[in-house]
Fold these 4 entries.
Entry 1:
Amino acid sequence: MKLVEKEKARILRKKGYSINQITKETGFTKSSVSLWVRDILLTKKQMKVLSERGRSIESIEKRRINRLFNENKKRLIIINEAKKDFTYISVDQLKLIGTILYLGEGAKTYRGMVRIANSDFSVIKIMMRFFREVCNVPESKFRGHIYTFVHADVDKTEKYWSKVSKIPRSQFFKTYIKPSSASLQKRNTLPLGTFDIYVCDTKLFLTIMGWIEKIKELIVGKMKPL
């Protein structure tokens, strides 16, 4: 089998193929191809073609890198300009932000239990500020719950979410570890799992529901049932 592979590599080399071209064409390893064809001398014409092709590939790559750099530069200009629209977040703005986030991400069926889960640390940080600064939730009422996957470093994960939320690990429920092999993809994309914030407070739950309903009324109006 090796003799057949060697001969194929040598034929391509004699035609003027580069080592990289032969490797790409055949799937053989670069080290093997280099060894098999090392005694084959290319003609001046073949060397010139490879040299010009190499410069062409190099110039294409440079243009690609420059294009990406310029595109990223333009994006950053737009992003940085947009950031100027906000200089600070007031308590009223934080109230609106937190309520809207809860509308999209929070649990709305557990009466008496405020709960919101996310894998994005910034969402957790925003909601913790919302609960502390807007809702005045006492620190003792916070509970944290982590959902993660097999082979996760539980200690590292708990320390991470405790640091993000500033909820002591002593106030965490036992971390849930999903055992299914089907969770492999999520384990790779969510190495630190997801974090749930819990606050057991009926009045707060109903208050947030009231804020949500009022915001919906102000923006989309009252909807009659079908």
Entry 2:
Amino acid sequence: MKLLRGGLISGLSVASLAVFSPQGMAATPSAANADGTPQLVTELNFRTAGSTGTNALPSTALGLSKLSPPGWTFSTMRGGSLGLETTASPVLTGVSVDALEGSYPVPGPGGQFILVNYNIASLKTEDVYIEFWARMPGAKEGCKFLKIFGERTMVGGAQSNANTTIGTNYTGGDYGAIVYVEFGDGTTSRNDSQNAIRLDGQYPQWVGRSYGTARVLTPQMSTFSSQDWGTTWHHFRIHIKFNSGTTPQNEVPDGEYYLEIDGKVYVDATGVYNRNPVNGPINTIEFFGWAQKDPEAFQLWYDDIRISTGGFLSQPLPDPPANVGASLAASG
């Protein structure tokens, strides 16, 4: 593994702005439905030193501090580290990839940060689809995992933003579990984790001011627990849409949240308030993020991150999905 606090690389593939055929619009309202023509905004892949391809960098590529994949930034603080780990591909039998590996030590005061960010501000969109593979091979602990930042501005002397977090638990109990989709319902101009949808369906009123009118489904009626992580790869598909409107008079509760893991739908919510009319569009998508209060050091891995608008670029995996990690190991 090649560690960095400012550099990594074995091979990197970055694709952007490719257009795909529209997916069929299902008759049943669902936050998984395409909103238009699915268009790839960026795809981030890491490949082994022996990989070749027009978009792959060789193993002798310069460190990350001297590499700038369009729109992406990489940084660590307070002891967090970031590197590449060669492992079996989560998708292709007999193929190795270099996965993006973040290591979190036991936190000191203020925790630690690993920030892998994609800036999407230029698109001025309030609607984004995100797909990736992730695994937590050792201890199961908590961090922000995936955070979507709205544009941060000042309105009338107060901070204005709309953020959404799908984190792994670092507050106690089942460390590492994914328990909530957290957001703010737009009651004020600062919207960040005041409200939540629990994956287990409990406390539905936590959705905020669209409670009673929003269509919020949690089909698994369960968190994605630390045991569910195991040691293998898991495929995530996530859709986030801010509700529309520019004033309190014309705002509409049409925000959406969709969380699918390994082909299983954990959250499918439509008709949600999740921003204030003064909040700007989506600004940044963050992977890894801040960790604190975790009792053990842990690692988190990502591979094949794809961000798109208009719809997902893949179809759901079978439910239940094949045990990808075990099948690759057996075939290896």
Entry 3:
Amino acid sequence: MAIAGQPEGTGVCALQQTAGRGRQGRSWSSPPGEGLYLSVILRPRVLNPVVQLIPLAAALAVARTLDDIYGAKPDIKWPNDIIVGGRKACGILVESSTESGRIDFAILGIGINLGQEEFPEDIRSTATSMLKETGLLIAPDDLLSPLLERLAEWYGLLTTDPAGIIEAWERSSSYARDCRVTINTTDETFEGITSGLSPTGALIIELPGGNRREILSGEVRLRKVKSEP
């Protein structure tokens, strides 16, 4: 639809995904009727690096919706996983098509677990749903409208206040600052302390010895290091 020229804001909702996937090709469990599975066409009129803030803006939109309406008290795991009750309740994926160095379009995909009571064995210890965390059985259609309103609001800040997206994300995530984390890339594993986001949305890590490193979302897995007793 995006290639065919459908306008920005065109969205598609699925009742079920038979081949749902997340970042880095990971599978996304999306059983029928138990989640909100949404893809939206975006045609951002901004250049890199601002366009890299789209996943952060989307995460804020989801987090604010779940908190404002359902009192879920979500956390955001960098860059855009929504954590409720210590487990993942929502995944976000942005894929873009470029032409002559400019973004032709981007597809924003959002999957929110709503009614699941059980999960596949491989994600049972890390996934959760709004039903499990709040006791509320939320219909996808009831969540869709307020979510789209907040998406439009936060997406609009890309052109008017990108720094505001960074600041809001840092306030909304327990991972943003002073959090000891392990970083797993394709080439190495190391630990450090988070020190906020760069203007491009990269996660800044303070390494032992005082050096800093900016981490890009496409290259890592991130987890908190438990404090020693």
Entry 4:
Amino acid sequence: MATISYHRPGSVAEAARLAAADPDARVIAGGQSVLPAMKLGLLVPSAFIDLAGLPELRGIRMAGGSLSIGAMVTHAAVAESREIRAALPALSDLAEGIGDAQVRNRGTIGGSIANSDPAADYPAAVLALNATIRTNQRAVTADAFFKGLFETDLRAGELITAIEFPIPTRAAYVKFPQPASRFALVGVFLAQTDGRVRVAVTGAAAHAFRLEALEEALARRFVPEACEAVTVPAQRLNSDLHGSAEYRASLIPVLARRAVQRITA
């Protein structure tokens, strides 16, 4: 059996140094993705770098019209926060629908975004809300962050510290969950701000992405029927035992329509 070291750094700077020094080490935020990957034999880390003891990565606050959420804030905390519920209820609804109670109480928003699972919920919110990902080194725009399957713009030794969400005029998230895992078979997050519309999709491709055809259709006419005229190509979409690429393509405008209905009801 391989020996795995365990580190519990006392600061973000120390955690970043440890991560930069050992490319095979894995940062632990909530552990809800790393541990299952190990059980499947997909990951054999040389060390764990546990961020649980870093209070600087926690906290929820409004600042300059944006909602800032620390990377180590759990899904349960996002779902239950009165501040988030008042400012951005669609994000609370999203968090409330992640996994089960155990996952929500252990998993973190920063860990989910850094992992960039193709079926994770938060990446759709990050893209649709045009969030800024704050790290120990820089600020990364949402459109530049997600690069591929489990791949982001994060560099060696770079850790997410917080995510800043601009407050939209209105927003909604609707997903078609895989029944066993509650991951998104397809999920659509829609946000409207000053007449502009951003639509992001998760679960359908290698990573979350924006769908400009829907954005343009809804910018012209923000009604549920506008989604019906948009045809989503199935090329490059996921196809697996849960659903074909064509099935996922057909779901996207349906879920977008439901999101618009939820917003305009």
